[in-house]
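thought: user wants a sequence for this fold. calling inverse folding tool.
action: design(structure=
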């Protein structure tokens, strides 16, 4: 990701005939190593729309889950989620293959649709 951003920035600077920063933020990776970290990351990704809506930064999500994420295909919610017509949509994500993503994070409990990222 970082290399891609550098390439885009150089191209834009050449196009605009200027020098300097193009992007304010830089890519930062962090390898998730513990079940708790993975669970927190899942909570963040799947509940981020509700978090931003609560801050007034976007339109409220009326459904219990954000259907613009992979949440409709996620099997780690405490509640049973039914999304009508989901079988007609191509699954945008693949199955998890690592222990942390399949079993490990569940040691700290399944996610609730009511949980919000901190």
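)
observation: tool returned 118 residues.
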């Amino acid at each position: 990701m970082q290399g891609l951003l550098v390439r885009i920035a150089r191209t834009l600077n050449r196009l605009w005939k200027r020098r300097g920063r193009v992007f304010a933020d830089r890519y930062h990776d962090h390898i998730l190593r513990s079940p708790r970290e993975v669970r927190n990351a899942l909570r963040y990704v799947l509940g981020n729309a509700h978090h931003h809506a609560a801050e007034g930064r976007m339109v409220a999500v009326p459904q219990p889950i954000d259907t613009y994420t992979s949440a409709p295909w996620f099997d780690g919610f405490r509640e049973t989620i039914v999304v009508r017509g989901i079988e007609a949509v191509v699954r945008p994500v693949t199955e998890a293959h690592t222990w942390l993503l399949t079993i490990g994070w569940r040691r700290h409990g399944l996610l609730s649709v009511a949980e919000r990222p901190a």
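thought: summarizing for user.
answer: Here is the designed sequence. The first helix runs from residue 2 to 16.
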